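Hi R.,

Here's the chain you asked about this morning:
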Amino acid sequence: MAARRPRERALAVENQPCNKTPPSLRSFSAERINRHHESTTAGRNVPDHHNDPRVEDDALIRGRGKFVDDVEKQGVGHAVFVRSPHAHARIVSIATDEAAKMPGVIGVLTAADLPGIGTVTRHPPIPGRGGAKIAFSHRPPLAQHKVMHVGEAVAMVVADTLTAALDAAEQVMVDYEELPSVIDARAALQPDAPQLFDTIPNNLALDWPGPVDDPANVDAIEQILQTAAHVARVTVTHQRMVMAPMEMRGGTAGYDAKTERYTLRVCSQGAGPMRDMLAAIMGIDRSALRVITEDVGGAFGLKSGAYPEYPTLLAAAKIFGRKIHWMANRSEAFNSDNQARDNVTVGELALDENGKFLALRARQVQNLGAYVASAGIQLATNNYARCFPAVYDIPKLDIGVQCVYTNTLPTGPYRGAGRPEANYVIERLVDEAARVTGIDRVTLRRRNLIPASAMPYKTAIGTTFDSGEFPEIFDKALTLADFDNFDKRRSESEANGKLRGLGLSCFLEHSGGVPNEGAYLTFPGKDTLMVNLNVGNTGQGHATVYPRLVAEKLGIDVVHVKHKSGDSDLDIKGSPSVASRSTITAGTAVVRTIEAMIEKGKTLAAHVLEADEKDIAYASGAFTVIGTDRQIGLFDLAAKAVELKDKGEVTDTLDTKLDVDTPQTFPNGCHIAEVEIEPETGELAVVAYYAVDDCGVMLNHKLVHGQVQGGLAQGIGQALLENAVYDSSSGQLVTGSFMDYAMPRAHHIPSLLRDDAHPVPATTNPLGVKGVGEAGTTASLAAIMNAIADAVPTAAHMDMPATIEKVWRACQEMQQAE
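And here is the predicted structure, written out as tokens:
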């Protein structure tokens, strides 16, 4: 069967339509947001800059950003990928002759033209049950023998113009032999399911027994569940999500034949880690590849790892001897980007007769898609398990996960990345436990919260929470939400013919991710200090935070400090900006590098000032001989050090590079949502949202608030709207455009949004920071779904997204039951 690129689908699905006119941008103004912030920075020598503006925004607002597609197109080859229209098929033949003859075509590549490139799948080892290794599926940059999902790249056409490349791609004829497909992970585990890989029985990549592979613990928890006074049980589903950043993926590759060196300008969350992944895939030395990342129009985990297109672009640049540029369109992104979530969890919580938690068991089935995405299994296993038991004292835990292959796009990191899954099942279980025991949901939570006096608290899976004041945060959230007067608000809604519900969601997550991160401080001249970092800035405000931090630590004006990242040639160790890790790991690296630079500066200053090194002190931008007025400024010393090194009098300058390990931290909090429902139509609105977060010491309140609000927006999307739907018989992505895939808009964000801070400094890093990037998404799902169940009890076991139709049906069932 000959086939061309798949056409965009436009079929209706059960997603809530976005049919309201959004309010003006004023809906996000300070006048509609009541903000309550506290700070505990006093005495910690940590800056507290509530009103510091984001320095990145001026250029972006004026259209002066430089994104992937902002590249000089003159003389550049334009790439278009030919993609599979089938979810599972054998490639019989690929005919490229007609395409190669088309006007303006530079060439056409297939897998046969890329013999030296290895598998795109790169993942750290994670032991399964009994020490079993992950069963990896080979992922070629261009499909060679089979296609495993709709949208998998089969060929690449390069032409002088994008139009010519698109026209020629239509002439690449692929003969497929279609094979049976499976899109559901639980179905893929069944004995009669299609076997996707000859070497991977039952499509099971990994059977993970939890952080501790201990049969005795499993047996003990089974016994507790059988004999406990009460057991709450829930089955919760995290639907598949399309990440959909504003800027799609793309890249521009080049190759210098003289130096035998590749260059890739690409949107990423860390140029250095992207370089390392691609060098391994290409089978080349790291020094033979430079990766550059400039402005990034949204990432959320999507742009943290390598994709098949990138090594193909690099190979094409060498083969054709010119720069090659590719930019995905939105339809292509729907069928080629990693997707998110897609798992089902069965949770069980045992309680004694007084409502004390005894044990929790969770069994999750994770849909990996056709291949293992970067860190994909890590999210479903370790990231997930580390969140248990959240803020509750649960003596026994048994967490197990099965990671399964299907004929869908790979699932990868997306805001939260395992944290929303864990906290969602816990908070749905706690509300279910309140129903089972008859104990008020507030009382039940208070009875089981870990007290501050228990810190540091070692969990049943071996993780240690270093700090936290969970009961205090819970009470603070109830006060912020005016919980005591909720019944009055409920009555007012009922008087207007509407149903009102309030949902509680305590949460705990972990931030930091991979602990190693570096920083590089350089003095390029003109009284300027560059703070060079590995972690990529994808909207978090790095250029606002890090220069201010350096200026505060050194006692100099922030105008002298500049920020740079996004160039692998800086050769700074570390990982991408994921897992709310940047401020924790890079911030710590910056502090430690400053300390090392000052010590180096004392040695240099002693030489210049002809004093003993022990008599040199640093303060307020100058090195001084103690007890005298003899001193030299920081920037003068930096310039002098270069001069002395050139003369051979000293061996080093003030430029300082360092990498350090920083332990994880555990942000936590309590979020409360109020919803109002029109029972005759099922229309639902999140009318109020309250958040109290412990993200440790806050370096910039505005950025913290923005992170909480952004996470909430994505949580609202998952709770109420978003759902990536595949056709079960063909494996086609039905929700292949924004005509079918509903995204949150301005009017979905509650007009009453109050966020408060309860910062308890982390004890594991010098800044006392914990991270906040995942908090809004992690907490909001259960807050909203529990609020819906509070308003409509028949919705207690409703799966996300809570669409208009689902809510309406639940309202009808409730009315019939009455």
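One quick note: The first strand starts at residue 2 and ends at 3.

Cheers,
M.
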